[in-house]
Amino acid sequence: MTTLLLVPLVLPFLAPILARRTFDRLAPATALWVLTASALALAGACVAALGALVLTGLLKLPAFAALGELVHPLRTPSDYLVLPAAAAATGVLTLGAWTLVRSAFLQTRAFRTARTQADRRPAAGDLCVVDSPHPDAYALPGRPHRIVVTTAMLRSLGPDEREALFAHERAHNRAGHHYFLAAAELSAHCHPALRAVRDTIRLAAERTADEAAAGAIGDRRLIATAIARAALASHAARSARPDFAPAATTGPVPQRVTALLESSEGRSRPTRWTAFLLVACTVLSVAAGTTGVVAFHRQVEIAQGEEGP
Amino acid sequence: MTDERRPAGELEAAVMAVLLTAGVPLTPGRVQTGLGFGLARTTVTTILTRLHEKGVVSRERQGRGYAYSPVQDAPGLTARRMHTVLDRDADRETVLARFVAQLNPGDEEFLRRLLEGDER
To answer: Cys-Cys link to A43, which of A141, A148, A160, A187 (CB 3.0-4.6 A)?
Structure first.
């Protein structure tokens, strides 16, 4: 039982590599769905397994055993194994819950501020322009959807490129990408390995919006140059700050630009089975987690004297 | 996308972007040339009139027509403060999808080469 509960805790460590594979092999929009659903399922299985471990530990304590109306001691592997595992699980769950609440608070506050300010101004269509020397642009979901762009960003792009930027942000809003990003954030707080998956989900959301914008504008190269110019302008404005980003990997911006320049219209990539390794890993994790929790529940029932051993 | 069947909101946004980048008041004709796509001048005039009625742009007489400029008022300054708040929360882009992420060292070189190749 306890071994089964460890599976959902260990399998997510494979997820970052498999998520990359899924992202590389599938069309961006499909990849976004598969990645987000897998991340949520892996996170759910992980939390369920941690919860079961915590309960196992608690029911080992006489006070909680009495509270749980156990008439026999709970049958588990050695206490030397179960109690430290339960203590560790409690710590991990507490830490995850705390960072989740903190992140939710910060993001809700940022979102509310942005929303209030955007609603206060009379809008030109869906555009909300912020007077700022830092080039920045983002999609602001809500009713109605808005695109927030700084004056510096508008000035660093040509007329065509501005249209490309607007098309990109509108694609985010239209497809409801903020739900995917929120789900990715939620799962990232459940297991440390899922943080890397969150980054892949973010990249998949950007790639999906890029492709949608390319479809709307009808010019892949234009989207690519708009992204490149916007990134360079933002980078120049921020170069005063210390740069802690490691140089180990290529950043998301060149990946997006390269993808736009590479794949010409109608190019269909062969979907290889490795794209679904992540799904397989997720299914395995959920199955092991479910079996583990069910087995735990049965052990508790036996200890409560409801069923013969 | 050189048509006028685009939603009115998108057209307004495009016209506003032209006015904001210009820095000087623009006539409908100048706005028309500054757009990234083709749009009839009468349509541009209609959009500018609508924006003026909303109080988003101001206009002044210039020759036989008007020249338009964006209104930068107190709300505009509040918006700057909002941006500072957003900038501080490092991971806000998880819910608010940002157009471009931070560049890694080396990325800059790659993008510069791409843009230079484009202009040649």
So the answer is: A187
